[in-house]
Amino acid sequence: MKVRISTLPTLASTILVITTSAVAQEAKPAKPKAKSPSEAGIVWANELPPHKQLPPNTTHRTFESKLAGQKVGYCIYLPPNYDANEDQRYPVIYNLHGNGGNTEFHSFEDVQVLHDGIVSGKWPPMIMVLPNGGTSTFYKDSYDGKYPIESILITELIPHIDQEFRTIASGSGRCIEGFSMGGRGSLRLAMKYPEMFCSLFCQAGNVPATLENFDNAESWHDVIGGYLGPDRANYEANDAFVLLEKNLKQIRGKLRIQIACGTKDGGHLPTIRSFHEHLVEHNVDHTYIELEGLAHNRTEMIKRLEPIWFDYHVESLRQAGAIEP
Q: Given the DSSP bridges, would you call strands 199-203 and 256-262 parallel, antiparallel or unpaired?
């Protein structure tokens, strides 16, 4: 695979692109960080914290989840003139929060950047959904059934959004993204359900080799705190590396993939480089960005890439035919 590099002049000083040869020499999978099962948890529907204010055109809502057995909260941004243009349907970006988010009130910076870009005419009107992914769930279903986060998102929330709002209700009109745990979750979900999305933006999301970590662990309790249980098949079914190979025909040339991470993000960069190399080995075209000197800092990443923050999704939607060229 040839490496093609293109950067905006205003951003060139902030971006470092690692070639495949450099990755092969430097990338080493990070050891899994063990978490106690008690660290996983969720409050299914939350109230807006007093110190926070919803971004423009954003509301907090709930839907009835059969899997959770109660109402589950989410926030949704609707573009300007949504109510006035009754015949127009819109693409949707699903933005997944990191491990410090823990509620549906997150990613407000992303919403503001999107809103400003839509108002200025830089980007077309789009919807953004902010799901509640809880704490340390990594957007997976727990083996004990307590936290069916993945199933809620895929089988309940997305159909709910398509039913309640004027979305483009197909993979050609859906994008998925997230930072840290959200980046990790969005990447794995895109690998597992590639037909449901046309665009992925993984922002500093650790990409562990889940099955390899399970096989090398002394106990299954040591792999993400035993969240996936003792069954090896469950780790194989949730390994992004394995899922890429399994769904290669649905991914290659159909799902557009963008990955970004900081060069000082030591806890996430090694596995991200490994997955980048895995994509190269399997001839999957993608965009890979390393931001020079950036640690694990979501606000700074957005600041550096703000002029092009949603460009990749927009181009993906154009190529998929969801929006006009």
A: parallel
Q: Map out the domains of the chain with their CATH numbers.
A: 55-320 (3.40.50.1820)
Q: How far apart are CA 77 and CA 112, in angstroms?
A: 10
pLDDT (0 to 100) of residue 146? 96
Question: Position of tokens 């109230």?
Answer: 47
HSE of 168 in the Cβ direction (CA atoms, 13 Å)?
23
Closest CA to 94 of 164, 185, 163, 166: 185
Residues 6+ away with beta carbon under 8 Å from 93: 114, 126, 127, 128, 129, 174, 175, 176, 177, 310, 313
Specify which residues 160 forms β-bridges with: none
For the question of whether the overall pTM of this predicted structure is more than 0.85, the answer is yes
Q: What is the number of residues in the chain?
A: 325
Task: Map residue 165 onto helix, strand or coil.
Answer: coil
- Per-residue tokens: 40: 């996983």
Residue 300, both tokens: 């700074």
Q: What percentage of the chain exceeds 70 in pLDDT?
A: 88
Q: Please list the ranges in the chain whose pLDDT falls under 70.
A: 1-38
pLDDT at position 101: 84
